[in-house]
């Protein structure tokens, strides 16, 4: 997967999130993917667990926006985002390790309480 | 180390880099730290190897600037930066895994050729 393909993957991720399109979102992940959101929380593994986390975000009405270029390495991408609801916003950096097939194998989201402006009502595992 | 301490660590890192202050830079790292710059390159381990990489950046006259909030998790930070020289710029995301003592244990820099604008003359390992 070249850099253009990696950037397109990230753009598809943001678009699927903002459209609350769970099927489009899950199609971006490898079947045995893991998701650690935020980093330090217990990683969630597999389609069902990952779907549950995205449903939660969709129900909160979160809209994502890229806040700078997608950084592409050989088999990973990292990108800064802002997640907004009507009540607040949260600054995040996502890192995706990619599978050889160009799917998200490992998703890690870096953020903490102090990256939250206003009231997002996010649950941050201790 | 609380979030304020983590943010201060990142600010000290940027300040040490921009002052080309190798001793101040190395003081931020654990003795057995590793550095992967960019992610996908062979990680460099230990004080001597890490010092050599920073000397290279200092000789190129690179100046770093944060491009958004430092994202703080329980034991890691991630932050977007732009690295500038007189000839070009490079968009980077750094991730530091921190030691219990609050030092940089594992440094990973996410960037690729397409994050380079102008001529930085950076060597990107294949």
Which properties best describe this structure?
homodimer; alpha+beta; Nuclear Transport Factor 2, Chain: A; 3 helices; 8 strands; globular
In short:
By secondary structure, chain A is α+β, with helices and mostly antiparallel strands. Chain A has helices at residues 3-18, 22-26, 47-59; strands spanning 29-36, 44-45, 63-66, 71-72, 76-84, 88-98, 104-110, 116-118.
End-to-end gap of chain A: 36 Å
Low-pLDDT stretches of chain A are none
Our Rg estimate of chain A from Cα atoms comes to: 14 Å
Give the oligomer, counting copies of the same chain as homo and different chains as hetero.
Answer: homodimer
What name does CATH use for the topology of chain A? Answer: Nuclear Transport Factor 2, Chain: A
User: Biggest sheet of chain A, in brief?
Assistant: 8 strands, mixed
Write the layout of secondary structure elements.
The structure is a homodimer of 126-residue chains.
Chain A: H1 3-18, H2 22-26, E1 29-36, E2 44-45, H3 47-59, E3 63-66, E4 71-72, E5 76-84, E6 88-98, E7 104-110, E8 116-118
Parallel strand pairs in A: 1-7
Antiparallel strand pairs in A: 1-2, 3-5, 4-5, 5-6, 6-7, 6-8
Mind explaining what this structure looks like?
The first copy, chain A, has 126 residues and is of the alpha+beta class. Chain A has a single domain, classed as Nuclear Transport Factor 2, Chain: A (Roll). Chain A contains three helices and eight strands. In chain A, strands 1, 2, 3, 4, 5, 6, 7 and 8 form an eight-stranded mixed sheet that branches. The longest helix of chain A is centred in the N-terminal third of the chain and has 16 residues, at 3-18. Chain A is globular and about 40 Å long. The mean pLDDT of chain A is 94. The interface between A and B is medium-sized, with 28 and 28 residues.
């Amino acid at each position: 997967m070249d850099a253009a393909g990696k950037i397109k993957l990230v753009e598809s991720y943001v678009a699927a999130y903002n459209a609350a399109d769970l099927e489009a979102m899950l199609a971006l992940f490898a079947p045995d993917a893991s998701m650690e959101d935020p980093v330090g929380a217990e990683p969630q593994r597999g389609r069902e667990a990952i779907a549950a986390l995205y449903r939660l975000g969709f129900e909160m009405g979160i809209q994502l926006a890229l806040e700078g270029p997608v950084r592409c390495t050989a088999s990973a991408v990292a990108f800064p985002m802002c997640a907004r609801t009507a009540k607040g916003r949260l600054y995040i950096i996502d890192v995706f390790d990619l599978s050889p097939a160009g799917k998200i194998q490992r998703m890690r989201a870096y953020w903490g309480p102090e990256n939250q402006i206003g009231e997002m009502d996010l649950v941050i595992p201790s």
